[in-house]
Every structure is written in structure tokens, then in C-alpha cells.
Amino acid sequence: MTPPQTQIQETIAIHPPVAGASLRGWVVVADWEMVDGRQVLSRLSSPGTASWDVKGYLHEALFGLWAADDVGIWEGNGS
């Protein structure tokens, strides 16, 4: 596990959506602006995560049908 992965893992793991939930995996997407003004997206995932799992996480996050209760469970969702 790289230092950034360790920090992200520890940060996410201490904020479960409900008590007793276990973190199985994660994906982070970051938007960067380069010095020359170009915009670049980068991605980092939990260690050992297969590429099809990463694609599945991203697809579900964008296109999954989230019940209102599911989104509202976690107080850190920005709502």
C-alpha cells in the first residue's frame, strides 16, 4: 500500500455509513489543473482492487439507482 493509499484507507474507514460496516474497497477521482492550464483527471484505488471492480465502483456511483435513504444514511455525503 502506498502512503497516499494508506491515508485514504484510514480516513474513509473511520467514517462508515452505518455502525459496524466494513470498508471493502474504494476509488478516488481527482481533477487537476496543470501549470500550462490543461485539466487532467487522475484515479487511485484501494490496493489489490481489480480493474473490473474499479470500473464497477465508478459505474455504480454515476449510474446506479440510489434510494433516497441510502444516500441520506451517511452524514458525510455533502447533502
Compute the number of helices: 3
Strand order of the largest sheet: 1-2
- Determine the oligomeric state from the structure: single chain
Number of strands: 2
How many domains, in number, for the residues?
1
| Model regions low in confidence, pLDDT < 50 over at least 5 residues | none
**N-to-C series of helices and strands:** HEEHH
Task: Indicate the structural class.
Answer: alpha+beta
Q: Could you estimate the helical fraction of the residues in percent?
A: 25-40%
Question: What are the defining features of this structure?
Answer:
79 residues; alpha+beta; two-stranded antiparallel sheet; globular
What's this model, at a glance?
With 79 residues, the chain is α+β, with helices and mostly antiparallel strands.
Question: Can you characterise this structure?
Answer:
By secondary structure, this protein is α+β, with helices and mostly antiparallel strands. The protein has one domain (3-61). It has three helices and two strands; from the N terminus they run H-E-E-H-H. Strands 1-2 form a two-stranded antiparallel ribbon. The longest helix has 13 residues, at 51-63.
Give the SSE layout.
Blueprint: H1 3-13, E1 27-33, E2 39-45, H2 51-63, H3 68-73
Antiparallel strand pairs: 1-2
